[in-house]
Amino acid sequence: ALVALKEELHDPNGSFNSWDLNAATPCVFAMITCSPDGTVAALGAPNAALSGTLSRAIANLTNLQTILLQNNNISGEIPLEIGSLSNLQTLDLSNNGFSGGVPSSLGHLKSLLYLRLNNNSLSGPIPASLANMS
Predict the structure, then answer these.
(1) Where are the transmembrane segments (predicted)?
(2) 101 half-sphere exposure, CB direction, 13 A CA radius
């Protein structure tokens, strides 16, 4: 999943340079935080000048609790697969170039406490599924 993320994002500042695919664990990668059991818990790359698209493979990081990708130039649609990340508590995709609608699948994120999607080029109504979130 991390390889797919790296391949679909352009990284002019070299933030991904520490991502050695031969490393025993991704826990040593910049922008990655792992839980005590060694699974990827957070992807944090705010203000990194990233562009390109956000890979649907992000959903394969099943233990993600935090995605902080604000203040970049990421475009395309928000992957609906993010809605399958049942442990996700924080999702900040603000200040990018995302387009299309807000995926209704985000309403499945029962652990979500913080959601920021402002300052993108999103269109359409806010899905009714988001109204059911606590």
Answers:
(1) none
(2) 11
| Each residue's pLDDT tens digit, 52-100 | 999 999 999 999 999 999 999 999 999 999 999 999 999 999 999 999 9
Fold of 1-132: 3.80.10
Angle at CA of residue 31, ends 25 and 34, nearest 5°: 45
- Collapsing DSSP states into helix, strand and coil, what is residue 67? strand
State the pTM of this model. Answer: 0.94
Please list, in sequence order, all residues whose beta carbon lies within 8 angstroms of the beta carbon of residue 36, skipping any fewer than 6 positions away: none
Rounded CA separation 28/110 (Å): 29
For the stretch 5-25, pLDDT in tens is 999 999 999 988 988 888 889
Question: For residues 134 and 132, what is the distance between their CA atoms, to the nearest angstrom?
Answer: 7
